[in-house]
């Protein structure tokens, strides 16, 4: 009660405080309004001199009307006031009654306290008597506790006018007394304890003190812990803020350091690469120059020195270039850093401005709530993470330390300050280190510039050296021309020698000529060897040159990559700017949303203002009416004076308010102007940054284009040189061939000697070949590098173009966003101005209200004075009327202005709302476009990469196909004639196959065609190889003769080469070359060994392929013979069998093909969808991987997450609503259950009909089987078997694949509730009669067709029916077995056919006819078996497909009906809910209205009573209280206004103050004009009305006094304004100085930037010049080298041709040897393989027979099991039920008996009769059942802790039994076909899950006829899914109606139902309900 009273007291105090504050604000506004009204004066009174009484009468009437309106307002306000007084009195009476109750409680407690005190004293005396010294201290303390005054008891309740302070004091007294009572009770208990235990008397006093001290300690500890917690919380907040700042600063610092380290590492790597490249190129040039010196042998020493000097200079140039590039990168980094600093400066400016605004706002907050300063300052320091912010945070923390010193927080804040100071010091140290690094880099730049000047001077010297080298090359060319002439003369001499040989036939002359020729040949050989050496040297030079070019290209590529990285950095900067813009846009959107909210609030306020204005008008009318009444009654001069004074004060207040509003308007306009200027500056800075980016991108473009052009220009001359070299090589090849032929004819006698020499020189030839091969490989590598570099350049150009397009788009978007930003900023400024104007209007309205209140008070005073004062004649009525007229006209004008301004503001708000909507739409569109552009860019990059990969693959494939085409062209020309005849025969075969209508032959046609073509091609290859062998043998014979002469020549040449090589080796300069060449020779020898190994493997593979081809040819020939025979037999059988059996087959085949096509179309559509989804996923994945996660995407994801959270909240609310609807639906579930019972009865009837139809169907099938047995004797089945083999194979594979696809579709389509075909028929409740009629018609048709059909079809369908049951039960097992059997049969077929063909080849002469007969018989037997199996499978699949389609269609219809019904019910429930909500809302509104009416009635009753009693005393008291409250509020408001004005005046600038001064002067002039006009009016009134002269003079005197007072006030206000303006100007000057400092720093940074940019441009120009000079040198060198290359390519080509011819001969001989060996190996292998294959075939046949026997046994066993298990009951279950019957309590035994009866097939009615006769039982029957619930678990005795189970109900125990049975301990058995027959009800199947299969199979047909049994599970379980027996925990939606409806099927695999739909939970819900 104490806490309740305390709460009431605090609430009353708050309400009174609010009332007082509102009254104070009203009085202050009224005073301001009166002042402003007096200041503005009376402008618009008409100024006519001769108006007279007409004016007075008109004004009199107007004043009357307004007085009446004011009177009405006054009466309304009086009524409201009385109602409020009545409410207050009601509350006070209730409080008084409560206080009386409390006082009674206090009295009761005091009495109880006195009684307790007496008991205490008595106990203490007893204790003292027992123990004299023990109780002294508590006895002394006890009376002291009662020394308090009880003086407040009766005083508070005597008056009715009780103050609320009495309530508070009484509440405190109650609390204190209750505390005293509790303390006394504790002491009493303590003393009683002492009295009981008198042994511990001496210690009792100590224990009391200890208890007290312990309580005090606990309280202190609690307080301390609370204070510590608060302190720690504040400290943790501070520490978190500072730690966030520190972590951000350290993270940025680490990032900057890591960036610097990465840049340094990159530069070091570049330096190392540059150094290595320079050394490689230097060595290569040294080798080239040395070779040229040896060839020339002139000016050796001078040229070597010059070349070395040149190389050193080139090294220096390269080093300087690399350093220059390094410096360029450093400058670029500095440029970026400066740009970042510039951005930071702009951000700092913005932050300073924001901090100024925040400081102003905080000052306002401090003035409003100065007490909350300590709490509000803490959280400001956690926003930004920069050094300036840290310094501000330090200052804030110091202020906080000063403020929180009283709270003992100095230590923690000091530690934070120290940490922050340490952070600042570390950051300053890092800054200093970075500045030192910058200075070092500048020093290195200056050094590089000096080195660059040195490089220029050395470049001029290099040109002279190059000219000398050029002259030497000219000399070389001249000598080569002389050599060519000598070669030409040698050829002429050779021709003459041949003529002489023909003429001279004598032997002596022939010998002499031979000797001469040998001498000439020796000389020519020497020359040839020299040429070869020169070629080798030249090619080495060329390779070195190509390596140099490669290095240059790599360098250029690196440069381009660096430029690309720069461009990427620029792009990243653009993306950063874009992100900033997007952030700004988001901020603007937030601001727009806020402004929309503000607009809505403003509209509401406008409506309120209109209502207030109407009220004001009514009040004015009442005031006017009252004034007219008062004038009619007459008023005294004192009243008029008071009215005039009050009116003047009101005018002055109104003027002051208006001036304040104008000042605020001007200030806001200036703030908006400043913001615009700042925005423009930021836009200019942004445009400068964008221009710099564009310039950098353009420079990158130009550089890349120049590089590509240079590379293409270098590529063209190289290609021309290659073409020339190839031509020369060909020409020299021809020449050398002629010379070799001539030499070979000449040297026959010296063969033996030369052969020995040849063997010695072969090694040297091999070495030369290796060197030539090395040169070729080097050449190919260089070509590949050039091609790869070109491709990379193309890719780079494409990437650059794409990036440029992206940059352009981003620029356009950024410009659009900037425009939108400007628009948004303008709209925001307008909104702010509108808000301010509306606030000013609100203030003026408040002041108007206060004026009205004042007028009402004055009217009351007037009435009182009129009643008291005697009426006086009317000398001053005219003056008062004129003043009132002027005031009323001013009020009207103000009202009109306010209304116009309100309308204008409404229009502005509507326009702004429209513009905001447009802006939001445009922003959303731009975001969409940005997303689309990003997606397109990612797709483009992905497609480019794909295209490159595809192009590479296509190039490789084309190369392979070109080689294959070249090899096959020659063969195809020869084979064209033979192939035509074969194709003709094959077309005939195809036509025959088409006539037969089989699909296997269609497939085998393509295979046979391919094999025939392959055989023919192989035969042609064999012929060609034989011809080549013959020609090669002839050539070998010829070459054996010619080789002797050639070998002699070769040996001589080799001698010369060896001599030259020895000479070279002897020279010391070639030692390095020798080592290098030896290493290369070793490497090439290793490679050659590898190549030889690979060649051997390839030859073996070729031989194996040839043997396989021969085998395939034999197989094809055998197959063709078999095909011809089969075709003949097909023709005969088709002619015989057309009448009997083809109609049914055709129909079935057509139906199957149609079904297959439809399924194929569905599969194709699904596969296309899957592929498209995969591609979308891949593209999205690759795009995300490639592009990385943008911050924009991250922000979008965060926004999406927030949206999703909101949606989740909405969904949770919706879920609660749904739960309420579900609770409503539970009441209606009974009707639904009855309907479900009816539906189940219908379902049972339908299932009975279906079972009858199935019995008829089985009978028909048996008759069908008997008819089929007659067909076994006929041999006509062979033709149909052959027709349908291929067709059935294809259909079987397709149907199996489609069933695999369809089974998940069906499971998903039917909501995972159907797994077998036959149980589904039980659910055909909607169309039972139609299905039965259709089945009967089908049965009759089948009977007719059975009588017509022949024996062939009957045998097939017999086999069909036998295997139908097993297929339905184990369809998945059969599929696997069929696939394995098919694959094994195909393999056996192939192997058998191969072996048969091989046997035919061996035994063609002996056993041709017998072998053919055996093979044909075996083929027929195999095909018959296959055909039977395939037919069985096809018929099963057909039946399954039809059944599944029918069931699906029916279930879809049922589902649609159920869904429609549920939707209708849901809509009904929703409508009912909505109506309920509406009715509840209406009831609440009506109750509220009734309550308000009752309160009003009570108020009026009390008002009437109080008026009767008289209210003069209470009114005076209330007026005095109101006046005191007004005075207090006036003082408070004046203080607040002074603080606000001081802050606003500080923010104002000098221009606004000057304008205000001018306005004040204008007001003074207006007042002067008004005075003059009043004087004129008075003179005119004196002329017209002489009676009123004295009154006019008095009025003029009063007005003059007022004017003087106003002038004094104006002077004082102007002085105050000047002082405030001076302070503001001082602040503005300080701010301007700060801004100037910041702008100076910005200008200095900009100057540094410009200087650095100019230096960068100069360096770029110098680099470009250097590159031009280098390129010029490279071009000259390339021209020189190309000339040398052309010459030496000729010589190389000649030697290559010779070497290739020799190699070709050697390879041909090796190939012949390999072929001969391979043929022998293959023959031996074939014989071995044939033997092995025959053995394997026999073994496989035996295994086949065993498998078939096993299958037959298994089928027989299955049938016997099915027959034997019908009609059996599980003994274990029945035993457990029987034993459990006697263990249950008596009132639950009838449930057990019902269950036993349902299992045994007893009807419900019979069971109920038995229960009626006898209702007894034995207890504890459930133990056995629950103990041995499953067949696998034996019965166990009860434990003692199981006793609690028997107290629970039978249904709960049955639930537990079902849960135990639903978790199988044995792996689940496979269902047979009989296990899939229809059930009577879902609950039945659920109970049978624990029963073994045999019992279940027999029980189910009975259950189909007994639907009324099993009442225990039928009602509820039909609507409950019991699919998922594994218990999932009770956490999910527990209600039945929220769970999916499903039929219960026997499942062994867990299905994906909702995780909480377990059977146990559902049954428990059922039991609860």
Describe the structure.
By secondary structure, the protein is mainly α. Among the domains are: 1-18 and 74-196; 201-271 and 376-455, no CATH class; 1000-1137, no CATH class; 1142-1187 and 1252-1462, no CATH class; 1766-1968, no CATH class. It has helices spanning 2-40, 53-130, 136-145, 164-196, 201-296, 300-368, 373-376, 387-403, 410-503, 507-633, 637-746, 751-868, 877-996, 1000-1066, 1071-1137, 1142-1187, 1191-1227, 1229-1268, 1277-1309, 1328-1348, 1351-1369, 1371-1402, 1408-1509, 1512-1547, 1550-1584, 1589-1765, 1771-1782, 1789-1800, 1804-1813, 1822-1827, 1850-1862, 1882-1887, 1893-1905, 1914-1917, 1959-1968. About 12% of the residues have low confidence.
Q: How many strands?
A: 0
Q: Give the low-confidence spans.
A: 41-49, 133-162, 373-385, 870-875, 977-981, 983-1001, 1184-1189, 1307-1328, 1816-1846, 1866-1957
Share of helix, binned:
over 70%
* Largest sheet data: none
How many DSSP H or I helices? 35
State the end-to-end CA separation. Answer: 43 Å
Q: What's the average pLDDT? A: 77
Structural class: mainly alpha
Rounded to the nearest angstrom, the radius of gyration is 58 Å
Percent range for β-strand residues? under 5%
What gross morphology would you assign? flat
């Amino acid at each position: 009660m104490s806490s309740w009273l305390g709460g009431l007291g605090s609430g009353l105090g708050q309400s009174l405080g609010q009332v007082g504050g509102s009254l104070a604000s009203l009085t202050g506004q009224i005073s301001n309004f009166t002042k402003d009204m007096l200041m503005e004066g009376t402008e618009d009174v008409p100024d006519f001199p001769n108006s007279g009484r007409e004016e007075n009468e008109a004004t009199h009437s107007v004043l009357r009307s307004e007085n009446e309106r004011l009177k009405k307002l006054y009466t309304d306000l009086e009524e409201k006031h009385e109602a409020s007084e009545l409410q207050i009195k009601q509350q006070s009476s209730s409080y008084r009654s409560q206080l009386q109750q409390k006082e009674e409680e206090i009295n009761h407690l005091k009495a109880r306290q006195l009684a307790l005190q007496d008991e205490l004293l008595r106990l203490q005396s007893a204790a003292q008597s027992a123990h004299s010294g023990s109780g002294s201290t508590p006895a002394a303390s006890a009376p002291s506790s009662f020394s308090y005054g009880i003086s407040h008891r009766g005083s508070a309740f005597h008056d009715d006018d009780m103050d609320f302070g009495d309530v508070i004091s009484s509440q405190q007294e109650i609390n204190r007394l209750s505390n005293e009572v509790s303390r006394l009770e504790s002491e009493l208990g303590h003393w009683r304890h002492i009295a009981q235990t008198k042994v511990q008397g001496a210690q009792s006093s100590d224990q009391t003190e200890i208890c007290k001290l312990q309580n005090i300690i606990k309280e202190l500890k609690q307080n301390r812990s609370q204070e510590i917690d608060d302190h720690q919380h504040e400290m943790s907040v501070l520490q978190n803020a500072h730690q966030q700042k520190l972590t951000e600063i350290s993270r940025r610092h680490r990032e900057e350091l890591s960036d610097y380290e990465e840049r340094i590492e990159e530069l070091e790597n570049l330096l190392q690469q540059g150094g290595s490249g320079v050394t490689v190129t230097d060595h290569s040039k040294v080798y080239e120059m040395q070779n040229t010196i040896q060839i020339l042998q002139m000016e050796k020493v001078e040229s070597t020195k010059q070349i070395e000097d040149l190389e050193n200079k080139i090294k220096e140039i390269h080093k300087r270039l690399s350093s220059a590039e390094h410096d360029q990168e450093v400058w670029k980094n500095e440029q970026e850093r400066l740009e970042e600093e510039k951005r930071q400066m702009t951000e700092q400016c913005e932050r300073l401005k924001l901090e100024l605004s925040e400081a102003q706002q905080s000052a306002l907050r401090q003035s409003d709530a100065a007490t909350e300063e300590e709490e509000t300052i803490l959280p400001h320091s956690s926003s930004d993470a920069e050094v300036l912010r840290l310094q501000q945070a330090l200052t804030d923390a110091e202020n906080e330390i000063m403020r929180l010193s009283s709270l003992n927080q100095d230590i923690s804040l000091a530690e934070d300050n120290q940490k922050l100071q340490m952070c600042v010091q570390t950051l300053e140290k890092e800054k200093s280190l970075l500045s030192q690094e910058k200075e070092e880099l500048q020093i290195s730049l200056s050094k590089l510039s000096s080195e660059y000047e040195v490089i220029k001077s050395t470049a001029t010297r290099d040109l002279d050296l190059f000219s000398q080298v050029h002259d030497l090359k000219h000399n070389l060319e001249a000598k080569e021309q002389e050599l060519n002439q000598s070669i030409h003369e040698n050829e002429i001499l050779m021709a003459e020698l041949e003529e002489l040989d023909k003429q001279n036939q004598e032997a002596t002359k022939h010998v002499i000529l031979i000797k001469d020729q040998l001498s000439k040949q020796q000389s020519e050989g020497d020359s040839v060897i020299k040429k070869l050496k020169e070629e080798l040297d030249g090619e080495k030079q060329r390779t070195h040159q190509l390596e140099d070019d490669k290095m240059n290209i790599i360098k250029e590529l690196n440069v381009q990559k660096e430029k690309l990285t720069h461009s990427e950095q620029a792009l990243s900067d653009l993306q950063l700017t874009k992100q900033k813009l997007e952030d700004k846009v988001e901020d603007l959107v937030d601001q727009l949303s806020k402004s929309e909210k503000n607009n809505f609030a403003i509209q509401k306020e406008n409506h309120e203002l209109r209502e207030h204005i109407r009220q004001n008008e009514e009040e004015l009318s009442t005031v006017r009416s009252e004034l007219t009444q008062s004038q009619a009654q007459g008023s005294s001069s004192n009243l008029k004076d008071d009215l005039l004074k009050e009116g003047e004060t009101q005018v002055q207040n109104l003027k002051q308010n208006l001036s304040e509003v104008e000042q605020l308007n001007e200030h806001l306009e200036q703030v908006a102007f400043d913001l615009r200027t700042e925005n423009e500056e930021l836009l200019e800075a942004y445009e400068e940054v964008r221009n710099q980016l564009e310039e950098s991108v353009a420079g990158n473009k130009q550089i890349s284009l120049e590089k590509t052009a240079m590379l293409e220009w270098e590529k063209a001359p190289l290609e021309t040189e290659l073409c020339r070299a190839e031509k020369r090589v060909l020409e020299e090849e021809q020449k050398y061939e002629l010379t070799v032929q001539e030499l070979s004819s000449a040297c026959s006698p010296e063969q033996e000697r030369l052969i020995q020499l040849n063997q010695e020189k072969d090694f040297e030839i091999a070495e030369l070949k290796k060197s030539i091969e090395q040169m070729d490989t080097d050449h190919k590598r260089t070509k590949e590098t050039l091609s790869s570099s070109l491709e990379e350049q193309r890719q780079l150009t494409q990437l650059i173009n794409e990036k440029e397009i992206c940059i352009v788009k981003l620029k356009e978007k950024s410009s659009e966003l900037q425009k939108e930003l400007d628009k948004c900023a303008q709209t925001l400024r307008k909104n702010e101005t509108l808000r301010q104007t509306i606030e000013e209007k609100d203030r003026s309205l408040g002041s108007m209200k206060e004026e009205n209140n004042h007028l009402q008070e004055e009217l009351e005073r007037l009435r009182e004075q009129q009643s008291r004062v005697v009426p006086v004649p009317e000398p001053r009525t005219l003056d008062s009327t004129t003043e009132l007229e002027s005031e009323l006209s001013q009020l009207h004008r103000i009202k009109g202005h306010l209304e116009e301004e309100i309308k204008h503001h409404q229009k502005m708000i509507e326009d702004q709302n429209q513009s905001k909507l447009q802006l939001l739409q445009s922003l959303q569109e731009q975001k969409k476009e940005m997303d689309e552009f990003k997606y397109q860019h990612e797709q483009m990059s992905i497609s480019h990469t794909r295209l490159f990969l595809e192009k590479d693959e296509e190039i490789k494939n084309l190369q392979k196909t070109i080689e294959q085409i070249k090899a096959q062209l020659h063969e195809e020309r020869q084979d064209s004639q033979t192939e035509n005849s074969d194709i003709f025969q094959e077309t005939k075969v195809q036509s025959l196959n088409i006539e037969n209508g089989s699909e296997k032959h269609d497939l085998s046609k393509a295979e046979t065609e391919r094999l025939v073509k392959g055989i023919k091609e192989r035969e042609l290859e064999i012929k060609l190889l034989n011809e080549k062998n013959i020609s090669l043998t002839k050539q070998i014979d010829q070459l054996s003769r010619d080789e002797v002469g050639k070998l002699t020549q070769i040996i001589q040449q080799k001698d010369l080469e060896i001599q030259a090589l020895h000479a070279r080796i002897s020279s010391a300069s070639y030692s390095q070359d020798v080592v290098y060449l030896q290493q290369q020779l070793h490497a090439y020898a290793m490679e050659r060994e590898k190549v030889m190994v690979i060649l051997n493997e390839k030859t073996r593979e070729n031989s194996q392929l040839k043997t396989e081809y021969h085998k395939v040819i034999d197989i094809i020939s055998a197959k063709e013979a078999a095909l011809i025979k089969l075709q003949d037999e097909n023709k005969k059988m088709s002619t015989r069998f057309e009448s009997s059996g083809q109609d049914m087959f055709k129909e079935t085949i057509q139906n199957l093909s149609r079904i297959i096509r439809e399924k194929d179309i569905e599969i194709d559509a699904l596969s296309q969808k899957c592929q498209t989804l995969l591609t979308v996923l891949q593209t999205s994945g690759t795009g995300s991987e490639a592009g990385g996660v943008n911050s924009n995407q991250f922000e979008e994801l965060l926004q999406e997450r927030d949206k999703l959270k909101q949606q989740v909240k909405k969904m949770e609310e919706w879920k609660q609503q749904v739960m309420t609807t579900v609770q409503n639906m539970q009441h209606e579930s009974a009707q639904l259950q009855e309907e479900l019972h009816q539906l189940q009865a219908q379902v049972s009837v339908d299932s009975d009909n279906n079972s009858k139809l199935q019995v008829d169907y089985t009978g028909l099938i048996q008759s069908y089987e008997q008819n089929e047995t007659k067909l076994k004797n006929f041999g006509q089945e062979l033709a149909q078997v052959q027709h349908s083999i291929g067709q059935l194979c294809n259909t079987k594979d397709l149907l199996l694949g489609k069933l695999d696809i369809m089974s998940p579709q069906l499971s998903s389509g039917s909501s995972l509730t159907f797994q077998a075909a036959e149980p589904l028929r039980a659910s055909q409740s909607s169309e039972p009669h139609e299905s039965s009629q259709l089945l009967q018609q089908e049965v009759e048709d089948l009977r007719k067709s059975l009588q017509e059909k022949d024996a062939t079809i009957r045998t097939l369908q017999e086999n069909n029916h036998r295997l139908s049951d097993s297929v339905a039960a184990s369809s998945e097992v059969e599929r696997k077995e069929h696939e394995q059997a098919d694959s094994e049969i195909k393999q056996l077929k192939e192997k058998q056919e191969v072996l048969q063909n091989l046997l035919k080849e061996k035994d063609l002469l002996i056993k041709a006819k017998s072998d053919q007969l055996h093979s044909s018989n075996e083929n027929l037997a195999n095909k018959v078996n296959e055909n039977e199996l395939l037919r069985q499978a096809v018929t099963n699949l057909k039946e399954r497909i039809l059944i599944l389609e029918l069931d699906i269609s029916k279930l879809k219809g049922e589902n649609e009906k159920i869904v429609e019904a549920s939707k209708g019910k849901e809509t009904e429930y929703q409508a009912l809910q909505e109506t309920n909500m509406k009715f509840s809302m209406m009831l609440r509104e009506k109750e509220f209205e009734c309550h308000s009416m009752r309160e009003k009635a009570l108020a009026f009753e009390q008002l009437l009573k109080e008026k009767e009693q008289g209210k003069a005393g209470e009114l005076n008291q209330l007026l005095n209280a109101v006046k005191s409250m007004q005075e207090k509020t006036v003082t408070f408001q004046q203080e607040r206004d002074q603080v606000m004005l001081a802050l606003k005046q500080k923010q104002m600038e000098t221009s606004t103050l000057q304008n205000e001064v001018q306005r004040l002067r204008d007001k003074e002039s207006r007042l002067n004009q008004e005075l003059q006009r009043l004087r004129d009016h008075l003179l005119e009134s004196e002329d017209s009305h002489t009676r009123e002269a004295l009154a006019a003079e008095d009025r003029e005197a009063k007005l003059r006094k007022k004017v003087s007072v106003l002038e004094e006030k104006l002077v004082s206000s102007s002085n105050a304004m000047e002082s405030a303006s001076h302070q503001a100007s001082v602040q503005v000057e300080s701010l301007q100085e700060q801004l100037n400092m910041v702008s100076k720093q910005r200008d200095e940074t900009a100057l540094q930037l410009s200087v650095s940019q100019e230096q960068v441009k100069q360096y770029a120009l110098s680099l470009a010049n250097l590159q031009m000079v280098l390129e010029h040198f490279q071009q000259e060198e390339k021209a020189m080298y190309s000339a040398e290359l052309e010459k030496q390519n000729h010589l190389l080509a000649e030697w290559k041709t010779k070497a290739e011819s020799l190699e070709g001969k050697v390879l041909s001989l090796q190939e012949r040897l390999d072929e001969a060996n391979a043929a022998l190996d293959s023959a031996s292998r074939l014989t071995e393989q044939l033997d092995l294959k025959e053995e394997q075939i026999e073994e496989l046949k035996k295994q086949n027979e065993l498998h078939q026997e096993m299958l037959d046994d298994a089928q027989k066993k299955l049938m016997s099991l099915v027959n034997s298990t019908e009609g059996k009951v599980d003994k274990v279950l029945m035993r457990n039920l029987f034993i459990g019957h006697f263990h249950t309590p008596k009132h639950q035994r009838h449930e057990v008996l019902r269950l036993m009866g349902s299992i045994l097939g007893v009807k419900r009615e019979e069971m109920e009769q038995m229960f009626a006769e006898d209702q007894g039982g034995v207890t504890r029957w459930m133990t056995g059942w629950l103990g041995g619930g499953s067949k696998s678990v034996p019965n166990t005795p009860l434990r003692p802790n199981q006793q609690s189970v028997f107290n629970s109900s039978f249904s709960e125990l049955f639930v537990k039994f079902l849960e135990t049975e639903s978790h199988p301990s044995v792996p689940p058995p496979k269902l047979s076909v009989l296990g899939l027959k229809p059930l009577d009800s879902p609950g039945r199947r659920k109970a049978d899950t624990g029963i073994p299969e045999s019992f279940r199979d027999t029980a189910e047909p009975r259950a189909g006829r007994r639907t009324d049994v099993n009442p225990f599970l039928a009602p509820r379980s039909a609507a409950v899914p019991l699919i998922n027996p594994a218990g999932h925990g009770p956490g999910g939606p527990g209600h039945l109606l929220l769970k999916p409806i499903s039929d219960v099927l026997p499942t062994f695999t867990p299905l994906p139902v909702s995780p909480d739909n377990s059977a146990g939970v559902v049954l428990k819900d059922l039991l609860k309900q």
